[in-house]
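[Q] Does anyone have a clean structure-token version of this?
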Amino acid sequence: MPRDKILFCIDRIREGFFLKHANILVIDVGGTHVKVLATGHKTMREFPSGAGLSAKNMVHGVKSIAKGWNYDAVSIGYPGVVVHGRPVHEPHNLGGGWVKFNFRKAFGKPVKILNDAAMQALGNYKKGSMLFLGLGTGLGSAMIVDGILEPMELAHLPYKNGRTYEDYVGVRGLKRLGRKKWEQHIVKVVQQLRAALEPEEIVLGGGNVRKLRSVPPGVRLSSNASAFVGGFRMWQNNYLQKQ
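[A] Here you go.
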């Protein structure tokens, strides 16, 4: 076996031993802010993101605000499609340089990457089947069935009048329609997806969930703090991820 593959296997074995009780740094990369929290700390830290944020800039920013925190591994919630632990497309609302970036080398620690909505879903999961919808800059989505996590990309599917789900219930929809109509479409989207996917539970999260004046029937609300719970759970073997 080539030396690089042997070292890779050794790294995986070492992670299995020491990460069970390791300190984890969780990074939630959003369209407006990057938020971080480490094991043993109660207060998150953050810095602005936006259209100019590259992967390299994100790492630099995280290292700057995480000074003084000790961590053994890193979890990243990424605002885009992730396959086999790596981003496959550049994010819609950020800068470039994410797909081929070596996060493990940049942090000098083991790194796991998961779609940001999937990470929040993982933090909210209790049992059975659950659909998570994240109301943020766009529309995040993920489903967990009997402990198996399936990240989804519902945001860009057609919804109405040639526009997508994200165009109506993401931040662009909120600005274009106003809060009242935006909330009405959230109810309709929840009804449609409940009928199509038949989850036992639907959870709404994301930064804009706090702007809801009423909760759609049969829905549980969550805060962005669930992303950190999901990031810690990413290193626990009892939470399975299908990617």
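[Q] Thanks! Anything notable?
[A] Helices lie at 3-18, 55-65, 103-107, 116-124, 165-169, 171-177, 179-197, 226-233.
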